[in-house]
Amino acid sequence: MFSSFFSTAPPVDPHAPNFHPVSAGRLSSELFGELEAKDTEWACPGGFAVETQIFYNFLEDGTSVLLQVIHSSVGVWYPTIQITSKIYNPNTGEKIWKSVNVANFVTPPPGLDKRSSKADQFSITHKSNPGSNEPEKYVVNANLGDDLQCSFEVSRPASVPGFKVGKGPKGGFSYFGPDLEKPDGYVVHRFWPRTALKGMIIHKGKAIEAKGPGMFVHAIQGMRPDTVAARWNFAHFQSDAHNGVSAIQMEFTTTDAYGKKGAGSGFVTTSVGSLVLGGKLAAVTSETRYPGEAQADDAEVISRAVHLRTAKDVDTGYDAPTELAFKWAAPALGGEGRVDASLQLDVGPPTAYKGLVEKVDVLAEIPYVIKTMVNYVAGTKPFVYQWFNPGTLHVTGPDSLIPGLSQGVDIEGRIYNEATFIS
């Protein structure tokens, strides 16, 4: 405890950069980093960290299905592991929500590697089949209660490799703190941007065929969630048109404590995204916006979530979006030219939202032991807005990806998106 009094380390410049975004120092040709086996292994980090695997899928009847495993560590406390599922049918308005604290979590299970895990309430088994049309998949079996069981496979097609931003062991990471070798914390995301779901969901004894496209993400927040970000935006678009199309984007804005010039220079926004076109991974995007710096409309790489219009939501106190735009642009993988995509979404006013799945009160959902360790601004509550709507993705790019794409193509599909307000 006295080491700091006798430290010979040079003092840290209070104006030194203390946020290092995943996009930093990477050329557009260096954004795509193909996932390696270790990238989607469970790390189960200690300290204060939240690690998660999430399967997002859209069923053929338009139902949205989410299944998530969350590993939460709080200092010396024993980790809390939850499995959650949210199923929303926009045709009937029916919503199923389950959250279960699991027992006897194990990774790796006997005979498997750490991409697989199991507990008394579930098993998630990673299987490889190199050289096939579906080189890897997850087999998921979960019992979330007497009225909800899931049994399905989530496969990744060979033409859509999993990705992170940047190659190598540090690919995918944004770091917090002035010292990159000893960071205060980090955020990392690894994606399968288009997957195929096949199986069954049993709700109240009734079988629901689980079939449709989706995505998978493995992510870690290696620090307290209230210090990572003030805002998050997430978009997940899927369409079966043109042999399969997806557009995903994950964006967060730092707190004021982390930025280009140390504490007080924060509210830096960094984004990661991808486009799957014609059933192939076509582009990976990543972009960072600093306060007071304009972003060019013709930038080589664009990865942006924009709240075009907002309105005060009396339920939460936040200026919540009523219109949003998501934008992607980057050189096409394989050097075939440039890909450019955008999607504009009108979700309506807070009093009459279109496609609102839920406004999630985060403090009501996270484990108690984490809640007691997180310091949110007095009088504020973190909320996640979740929407699920039809959407149209406008894309231009090389005709080799989709015939006529050079002239622009409108692709109809569905979009699940989130806007998260932490402080």
From TrEMBL:
Keywords on record: Cytoplasm
Main location: cytoplasm
Domain Svf1-like C-terminal residue range list: 223-423
Cytoplasm as UniProt keyword: yes
Amino acid composition bias (Polar residues), ranges on this chain: 119-132
Domain Svf1-like N-terminal: 50-221
Subcellular location: Cytoplasm
Signal peptide positions (record): none
Name assigned to this protein: Oxidative stress survival Svf1-like protein
Organism: Phanerochaete carnosa (strain HHB-10118-sp)
